[in-house]
Amino acid sequence: MLYIKLHNMLDNIKRLFKDQSYYTAKKLHDYLHDYKYEIDNTTFNDLLLSDFDEKFNHTITSCGDEVFYHWLHSVKDSESIKTLQNDLKCIEQNKDIDIVTRVFSKVGKQRRGNIISDIWEGFTIKSKVIDNFYVLLSINILISVLISIINIKYILLSIIFFCFFNFVIYLFTNVKISRVSGSINYILMLCSALKKIERKTKLQLSIEIPKYKKFNSLEKYIVFFKDGIGGPESGDPVSLFVDYLRLFLCFEIYAFKRTSAFVIKNLEEIHKIIYFVGYLDCLINSKEIMDEYQTAYSQIDSQKGICFDGMIHPLLPNSVSQTKDIRRGLIITGLNMSGKTTFMKSLAINQLLATSFGFCFSKTFHTNVLNIISSFRINDDMLHGKSRYYAEAYRLLEINNQIKTTNTLCLVDEILSGTNSDDRIYGATIILRNFSANTNSIVVAATHDNKIAESLSGILSAVYFDGEINGDQIDFDYVIKDGIVSKRNGLLILKLIGLKIIEEIV
């Protein structure tokens, strides 16, 4: 009972010493540079990749989460894609994958701390008390000894002073140390998982299992970290004893400093452990996606163009499949809501999957390694005094700068929609013509202005989406067709939603 009361008192006291230092959670993607191109935030949002993550990321470990996020933000080179595909095929053919899944399930997601922010660059704790611990401990010992030397009767007082001094050190450091202790425990869980995988399976991937055995020496220190003991409600005598050692003899900070030195010395191997587990976890996740959905391995070609058969959008449950051979880019026209934007997003997300995950949602998908950049949802920035047109123009400038230096899949929806018709037609024609000057890039643009499509017909292939207008109803087939659309439905849509002024016009 006294033990529980002591812990409750400590919790209240430690709130006063709460770590107020700036703490930014970093991602594994921030540190890896094993890719050819990076997906920028605007394109990431345009393609609804957060929704893709939510639907298809069923990785089991926190490392798997990190690698999955990394793949969604990057495009690999052709050799890396082939290597990934070979590893994925190995996973498909290996009968021991169920064992790996069970092992990872016992590890699960990290509950305390952030393994990347806490450990990837070594411990991120900044504390003068921790840095000068041995000096403070020496001062404490010296004062305690002097007290006992003054008078032998004061020996009990010297012991009390010694313990109290250490207790104050504990209060200043425990909050900071407990922040990273969960990550140290998680590393040990990963090492234990790798041990079981190496012993019970015969995996042969492109990357070897890291040297996890050297981390066995950490176990003798981790018991002194906060979540290395049973806690006040456990009723465990060993936990009680360990807690008193941490509180009054500074065993926690001593163990932390030894652990910190070990981590810094073995950072490279820690990186390998985190990435290997995440990589294997993502391979298993990809296998499960391919088993459940209509997918195919992407074929990476050196020639320009994207050719696909039966391509669907992974986020749409009833997505209509598309088949097309794109060699010189597309200018898309079509009725409102007929599928122009959906097609463009489907193409872009499958291009990303093909060159990052190694598979796509299609029967076949032939492509080259391309950077991906888009301009879909452009809004004004009222706080910074930027109109919608200005914001779109700035985005087009970013695309122009990128497409000059990299082979790119460029997607632009309703280009220059924020300005008048004459400026839009003239400006859009010039801009898309300039974008297409990079012969190794592919430009796909959608517009409601047939004049823009007509002016670019010699540079981009004209395609369209339409539907059948039957009275007050529109039936869309969502299938891409060659040519320029000849129908309009803008006014009809206004009528269908109940605008009475439109009823008089239509």
Please tell me how large the radius of gyration is: 30 Å
Strand content: 5-15%
Category by helix and strand content: alpha/beta
Number of domains: 2
Strand elements, count: 16
* Mean model confidence by pLDDT: 83
Q: Count the helices. How many?
A: 20
Q: What is the topology, as strand order, of the major beta sheet?
A: 10-11-12-7-13-16
Tell me briefly what this model is:
The protein contains 20 helices and 16 strands. The chain is an alpha/beta fold and 506 residues long.
Describe this structure in words.
This protein is an alpha/beta fold and about 500 residues long. It folds into two domains: about 1-125 and about 175-290; about 295-505, Rossmann fold (3-Layer(aba) Sandwich), CATH 3.40.50. Helices cover about 55% and strands about 10% of the residues. It is built from 20 helices and 16 strands. It has helices at about 1-15, 40-45, 50-55, 60-70, 80-95, 95-105, 115-120, 130, 135-150, 155-200, 220, 235-250, 250-265, 265-290, 340-355, 390-405, 420-435, 450-455, 490-495, 500-505, and strands at about 35-40, 75, 295, 300, 305-310, 320-325, 330-335, 360, 365, 370-375, 410-415, 440-445, 460-465, 465-470, 475, 480. A six-stranded mixed β-sheet has the order 10-11-12-7-13-16, sandwiched between helices. Helix 5 (about 80-95) crosses helix 14, helix 6 runs antiparallel to helix 10 (about 155-200) and helix 9 packs antiparallel against helix 10 (about 155-200). The radius of gyration is 30 Å and the shape is elongated.
